[in-house]
Amino acid sequence: MANGGGLTTELYKGRTTSYVILACIVAACGGLTIGYEIGISGKTRFVIDLSRISFVLSQVNEDKRLIIFTSSLYLVGIAASLLASHVTKIYGRRLSILCGGLCSLVGAVLSGAAQNLAMLILGRIMHGIGLGFGNQAVPLYLAEMAPAKIRGALIIMFQLAITIGILCANLINYGSLWGWRLSLGLAGVPAILMTMGGFFLPETPNSLIERGRYEEARRLLTKIRGTEEVDAEYEDIKEASELAVTNPFKAIFQRKNRPQLVMATMIPFFQQFTGINAIMFYALVLFKKLGFGTDASLYSAVITGAVNVMATLVAITFVDKCGRRALFLEAGVQMFFTQMAIGLIFAIITPLSKSFAVIVVIMICIYVSSFAWSWGPLGWLIEIFTLETRSVGQGINVAVNFLFTFVIAQAFLAMLCHMTYGIFFFFAAWVLVMSLFVYFFLPETKSIPIEEMTSVWRRHWYWKRFVPDEDPPALPSYK
Fold this sequence. Notes:
GO cellular component, one term: membrane
Strand content: under 5%
CATH superfamily: MFS general substrate transporter like domains
Helix content: over 70%
Family: Belongs to the major facilitator superfamily. Sugar transporter (TC 2.A.1.1) family.
Order of helices and strands: HHEEHHHHHHHHHHHHHHHHHHHH
Number of domains: 1
Membrane topology: Multi-pass membrane protein
Domain Major facilitator superfamily (MFS) profile: 23-446
Structural class: mainly alpha
Shape: globular
InterPro entries: MFS_dom (IPR020846), MFS_STP/MST-like_plant (IPR044778), MFS_sugar_transport-like (IPR005828), MFS_trans_sf (IPR036259), STP/PLT_plant (IPR045262), Sugar/inositol_transpt (IPR003663), Sugar_transporter_CS (IPR005829)
Strand order of the largest sheet: 1-2
């Protein structure tokens, strides 16, 4: 490529402009929508009668129909994310963001104004389509707009928006007397922000070049990098586009793209099996098991939401300094031992005294914080994909994420009832497995130009057997 296949940004000129920062902030607002949905879904109870529909806001749901209802959105999201990968590649990242915002907005309006069950379900379907498009397009947009040296931080802004959305939902749930219509209808606020982003954001240079709009791409690249010296980056993107195939779904299953396919499936799978969504979806159920009263349970859920936000800021601060692997591995140790400690406390001490209940809450907050600077934000680092597979790779990533979000949502209450304290050992075991996976199979991608990622796979001790060896750069192998 333009820099001879090197893995540094020495030939990439320019600076971090306020223009690109503003564009990334606006785009990242798409994360507010899914965060708000996660926060609301676990706490709003819909008592559904076959002949009529009524709504009751309560703290704990034990109706399996509610679990199916609240998580069915993610089944729709699976199909929508795969469709979005096609739209994003052919028509651009901005259009997918716009589609996601509009569908989520329509879904919020239908849900908040629902007069019958059919109207409510239609609202959920529209919202699921919106989340599928948004989660596929926004991280991709951020990855392509961001300079390599701060790409990690800007992509993690998407996860920060998710955590803020969860916290806002928890605060609204705390004012539950406001009513279910307001809780559901307020999902339209982040949807409006996302829609505005779709209207006013510029397209990414990568997408413009991918669609043959070369001069427009060069002008935009000059603007977002704040310099006329963009030849190296421009040529790298152009070469990556020329190497791309017309059928990305077929391409990602080719042998040379095996590492990308594995990461597109395993990272979102592991992300859900950390156990985080079990806690965030059903925080009220969990805290009730801990012996807290109704008000204290909701208050504790707000605390975990605040911890989630603050810890995500840690990831933004350190991801481009320490690297992705360091955050993954440190958090893996922290998450494993907190899960084991919680499980042991429940196994040995029954019932919990007030002091031990407080200790468990502290342990949960430590666990949530470690997730928030590791598997939460780093699951969206789609820099691992080349341009030819980036859109479909992110579509698969989101689809797998939604699929196992649905699985966990369906299974958690039954697991909690049958496994009791063993559920913490279950998730701790998965944390150990995923940490070993990261240690052996995930290379470091810090500060590497996004269109140079093939070189990373070529130098990895395992993945190099799949990727053609074409002028590999002088870089030590990663474990």
